[in-house]
């Protein structure tokens, strides 16, 4: 139930064009300071997970591991996605509060 609310909000953010998807683009957004929240699939490769988690930690960006690559892709209306960056502060804070309740 709670995960469904998270994925629904993620879909709304994607339609508002406030979501960046793809490992390299997410790392770039974190580096540039545009990423407010990063979501990572739990079935991402160890290398990808470490890279994104290290970047988020270094640049002080909140990140969460949630769902698998197909869940994240489906929520944003795309194919499988391993990493998503939320670029809007409002969407990021709401998603963060939902994720932290879980």
Automatic annotation (TrEMBL):
Gene3D superfamilies: 3.30.1330.30
All residue ranges annotated as the Ribosomal protein eL8/eL30/eS12/Gadd45 domain in the record: 5-95
Keywords assigned: Ribonucleoprotein, Ribosomal protein
Protein name listed in UniProt: YlxQ family RNA-binding protein
Molecular-function GO terms, alphabetical: RNA binding
Coiled coil (UniProt feature): none
PANTHER family on file: RIBOSOMAL PROTEIN L30
InterPro entries registered for this protein in UniProt: Ribosomal_eL30-like, Ribosomal_eL30-like_sf, Ribosomal_eL8/eL30/eS12/Gad45
The organism of origin for this protein: Lysinibacillus irui
GO CC terms: ribonucleoprotein complex; ribosome
Domain of life per record: Bacteria
Pfam families, per database record: Ribosomal_L7Ae
């Amino acid at each position: 139930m709670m995960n469904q609310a998270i994925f629904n909000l993620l879909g709304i953010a994607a339609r508002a064009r406030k979501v960046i998807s793809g490992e390299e683009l997410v790392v770039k957004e974190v580096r540039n300071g545009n990423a407010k929240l990063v979501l990572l699939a739990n079935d991402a490769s160890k290398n990808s997970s470490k890279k994104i988690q290290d970047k988020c930690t270094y640049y002080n960006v909140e990140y969460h591991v949630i769902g698998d690559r197909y869940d994240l892709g489906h929520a944003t209306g795309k194919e499988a996605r391993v990493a998503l960056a939320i670029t809007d502060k409002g969407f990021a804070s709401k998603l963060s509060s939902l994720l932290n309740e879980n």
